[in-house]
Backbone:
């Protein structure tokens, strides 16, 4: 055995042993070589230890390796061993001791290493180079529900086979082994083995392990349980997402469907939304609890399972009310209800055991029922169900989030209800502003229709004028609601008043433009701020107005920002030129161009409003589509159906006002015209001519008497106050019209003569015998005084 002088004393050996006191052991663990450093460290001379078992000198404590000194005290040491083969093929061990006494840094490292496995709240896994678990600390065993006996030697994907994130983690750790780049902020989700219903979420970090020579030994994984914080973030994100996904419109049905589709499968496996029937009509609902007579309407359902599963396990199938309301008593006691574990013996709902059993038969394991309540009003109920094994049953935290979600959705539903109420009121008012029925006209055959919407208030009108003429009008107000309906009423009333005054189309629009500006200025200068029900400004409103004369076969039209009428003649060779369009009302002081067209009988005149939100290009495209589709040979009602299909391709979701008129010519036999010389004696001649014409038309004596009186008074006034030429014209249509035209532009006025006056009673007599009378001025100058008699009961 070599002496101590032959023991190496180099503290920098390249064999990996720690620097310190060397000695040697034989194959049986007996000391065979003892150095001076070892004697100095432990106090034993060579002769006292050689041949003894080394176990007599070593004491293993929880703090590490301890060597026993000759005086009995224990010295902490770091121990290094390397096997060697002697020339005689014997096994010997080179041992080196490093004294750790007073080594504070080493003690800290040892304590930290020990605490990492026993005291640290962080989960620690040591993985080998094959990514199998080599060791784990107590924290990892605790919060992941595993034990070292069942885990060491297995891969993560084997410990948690149903966690897909474990496969991703192994791929990430493979990259750590390959590159040495640490892994941070990796999220691992798994179900603990002792609680396979509640998923746990961990924030994972990993770094590579290697020895002093750089050989890769494995990976260390550090896990932090972030389940509570992440669940709170997910619940908050759920509410944030709901604010953008639910209640995107003011449509009650769509809002209900958005809610059901949103919560499935994020929150529940199934959902049902039931609303009080009055919500759908926008009616008022009394505050507080509702009685048992309240009617609930199923608005939306959603099921996370397949249709086959829903039909097998859901009462009524997927296309019906798949899950009944557990208890309608919530209408009387509006409070959220949580049933974490639904059982046949569950006391709730005790008043409806049949429905309770139907839920259990459908496989429902847990449910929540929440009232939809906003502004003190109960609007309905939302029911959430879980039947899947994972996630687990609803918990109190789920109820808190679902209640907040229900409150937000209830506000959306209540806003939609209020909007529905206002929209319905606006539509009723708007419909009331439109003509209920259009009086039959001899000059035109009419077909009309209106599809309402909340986008734009649209209107149309047919106004009978003197001389068998008919005015056609249409327009739109770029607004919605009650104010828009009121604006429509104002526009239509002003157009009717100006039309009755026999104003030409261009002048009518000019007057209408002035009135619109004046009304808007008056409204803007009002001291009281406008409310939601105030009329909308008329600036930007559009209007088209045209007058058809069946005797002259002339159509005069002007437009203020509105698509001009579309004319389609029965003869394709007739070219009806496009009409010019002026600016919208209240936006410009430009003139409104007037267009004169000679229209053959049988021509289709189409007035329409453009689709909502359409620009100039879309409006032209709609007009071109109508021009290519409409055929003058169509009946006016068939033409209306065709126009509706072109302008309303999406059905009731779109809107338009459509007016179709087919022109007709008044036969010459129904018109009698005489030019009268300026001779007072011609008054009697005029009466005679009128009497003969009425006899030819087979009109009764009452009509003849009134007509003779009207002709006598009007012709007398023309000779007395006007200038030549004087023309008498009788028109037989649905009414009998007597017209006297002269060259003067002075309009007559109705006077109430005094008892001592010798004249001034002519127009008063005429007005008392006819249904209506008036004056219109010709384009080239002069005027016409006309009077109408009804030939049929009013």
Residues:
């Amino acid at each position: 055995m070599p002496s101590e002088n032959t023991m190496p004393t180099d503290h920098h050996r390249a064999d990996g042993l720690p620097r310190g006191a060397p000695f040697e052991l034989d194959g049986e663990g007996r000391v065979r070589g003892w150095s001076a450093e070892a004697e100095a460290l432990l106090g034993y001379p060579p002769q006292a230890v050689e041949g003894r078992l080394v176990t007599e000198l070593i004491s293993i404590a929880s703090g590490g390796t301890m060597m026993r000194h000759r005086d009995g005290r224990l010295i902490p040491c770091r121990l290094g061993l390397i096997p060697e083969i002697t020339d005689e093929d014997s096994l010997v061990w080179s041992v080196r001791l490093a004294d750790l006494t007073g080594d504070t840094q080493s003690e800290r490292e040892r304590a930290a290493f020990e605490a990492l496995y026993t005291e640290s709240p962080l989960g620690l896994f040591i993985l080998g180079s094959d990514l199998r678990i080599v060791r784990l600390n107590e924290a990892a065993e605790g919060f992941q529900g595993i034990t070292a006996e069942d885990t060491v030697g297995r891969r993560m994907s084997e410990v948690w086979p149903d966690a897909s994130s474990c496969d991703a983690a192994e791929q990430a750790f493979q990259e750590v082994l390959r590159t040495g780049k640490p892994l941070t902020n990796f999220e691992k989700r798994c179900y603990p083995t002792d609680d396979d219903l509640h998923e746990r979420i961990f924030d994972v970090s990993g770094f590579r392990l290697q020895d002093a020579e750089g050989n890769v030994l494995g990976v260390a994984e550090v896990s932090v349980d972030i389940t509570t914080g992440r669940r709170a973030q997910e619940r908050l994100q759920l509410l944030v997402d709901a604010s953008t996904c639910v209640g995107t419109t003011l449509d009650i049905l769509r809002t209900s469907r958005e809610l059901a589709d949103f919560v499935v499968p994020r929150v529940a496996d199934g959902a049902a939304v039931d609303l009080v029937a009055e919500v759908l009509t926008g009616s008022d609902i009394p505050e507080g609890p509702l009685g048992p007579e309240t009617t609930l309407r199923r608005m939306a359902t959603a099921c996370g399972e397949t249709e086959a599963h829903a039909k097998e396990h859901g009462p009524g199938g997927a296309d019906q009310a798949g899950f009944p309301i557990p208890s309608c008593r919530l209408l009387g006691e509006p409070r959220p209800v949580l049933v974490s574990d639904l059982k046949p013996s569950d006391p709730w709902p005790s008043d409806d055991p049949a429905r309770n059993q139907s839920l259990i038969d459908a496989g429902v394991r847990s449910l929540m029922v929440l009232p939809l309540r906003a502004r003190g009003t109960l609007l309905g109920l939302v029911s959430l169900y879980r039947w899947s094994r994972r996630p687990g049953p609803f918990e109190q935290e789920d109820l808190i989030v679902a209640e907040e979600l229900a409150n937000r959705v209830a506000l959306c539903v209540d806003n939609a209800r209020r909007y529905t109420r206002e929209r319905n009121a606006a539509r009723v008012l708007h419909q009331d502003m439109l003509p209920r029925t259009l009086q039959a006209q001899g000059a035109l055959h009419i077909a009309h229709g209106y599809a309402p919407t909340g986008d734009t208030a649209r209107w149309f009108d047919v106004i009978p004028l003197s001389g068998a003429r008919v005015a056609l009008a249409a327009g739109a107000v770029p607004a919605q609601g009650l104010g828009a309906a009121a604006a429509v009423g104002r526009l239509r009333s002003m157009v009717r008043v100006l039309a009755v005054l026999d104003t030409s189309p261009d002048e009518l629009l000019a007057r209408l433009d002035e009135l619109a500006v004046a009304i808007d200025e008056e409204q803007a200068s009002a001291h009281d701020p406008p409310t939601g029900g105030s009329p909308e400004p008329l600036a930007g409103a559009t209007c088209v107005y045209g007058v058809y004369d069946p005797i002259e076969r002339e159509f005069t039209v002007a437009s203020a920002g509105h698509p001009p009428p579309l004319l389609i003649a029965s003869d394709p060779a007739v070219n009806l030129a496009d009409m010019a369009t002026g600016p919208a009302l209240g936006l410009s002081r430009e003139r409104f161009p007037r267009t004169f067209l000679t229209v053959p009988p049988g021509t289709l005149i189409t007035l329409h409003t453009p689709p909502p939100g359409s620009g100039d290009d879309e409006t032209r495209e709609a007009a071109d589509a109508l021009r290519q589709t409409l055929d003058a040979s169509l009946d006016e009602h068939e033409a209306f159906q065709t126009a509706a299909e072109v302008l309303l391709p999406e059905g009731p979701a779109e809107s338009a006002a459509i007016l179709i008129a087919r022109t007709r010519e008044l036969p010459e036999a129904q018109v009698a015209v005489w030019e009268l010389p300026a001779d007072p004696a011609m008054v009697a001649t005029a009466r005679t001519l009128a009497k003969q014409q009425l006899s030819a038309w087979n009109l009764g004596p009452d009509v003849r008497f009134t007509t003779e009186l009207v002709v006598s008074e009007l012709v007398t006034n023309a000779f007395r106050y006007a200038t030549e030429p004087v023309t008498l014209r009788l028109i037989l249509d649905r009414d009998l019209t007597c017209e006297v035209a002269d060259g003067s532009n002075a309009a007559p006025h109705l006077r109430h003569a005094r008892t001592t006056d010798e004249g001034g009673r002519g127009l008063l007599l005429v007005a008392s015998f006819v249904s209506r009378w008036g004056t219109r001025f010709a384009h080239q100058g002069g005027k016409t005084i006309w009077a109408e008699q009804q030939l049929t009961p009013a």
The longest strand covers residues 74-85. The chain has 20 helices and 30 strands. The radius of gyration is 50 Å.
